[in-house]
Write a structure and sequence with these properties.
Layout: E1 4-9, H1 13-24, E2 29-34, H2 37-46, E3 51-54, H3 60-73, E4 78-81, H4 87-99
Parallel strand pairs: 1-2, 1-3, 3-4
Helix pairs in contact: 2-3
């Protein structure tokens, strides 16, 4: 069974690394991280992601730009906002989002 591919976007490198590590602790998931909009869009264009996780520090304008770009390529992409709360909350948010699809 293949892993669920998750793109994690966060403006703070240290927080991004922590989120990616926490996501990758689940053997069913594989996270790729991006700090900038350009990096996130490039990653999205080169991988088949099922879910995008928007972390801290993303301005509303960037969020709108990213969501529009991602949905133009995959109208069924799952986009989740995560602003902290620990690994339990993070896993719950991902499981909940995946269950809706």
């Amino acid at each position: 069974m293949s892993k669920v591919e998750i793109l994690v976007i966060c403006r703070h490198e240290g927080i991004l690394q922590t989120i990616v590590r926490l996501v990758n602790n689940n053997p069913e998931w594989n996270a790729t991280g991006a700090v900038t909009d350009d990096d996130a869009i490039a990653e999205f264009n080169s991988h088949l992601f099922k879910l995008v996780l928007l972390g801290s520090g993303i301005e509303k304008e960037s969020e709108d730009k990213l969501c529009t770009a991602f949905r133009a390529l995959n109208q069924h992409i799952i986009i989740v906002q995560h602003y902290g709360g620990g690994s339990g909350l993070l896993a719950a948010e991902i499981y909940e989002a995946l269950a809706r699809r």
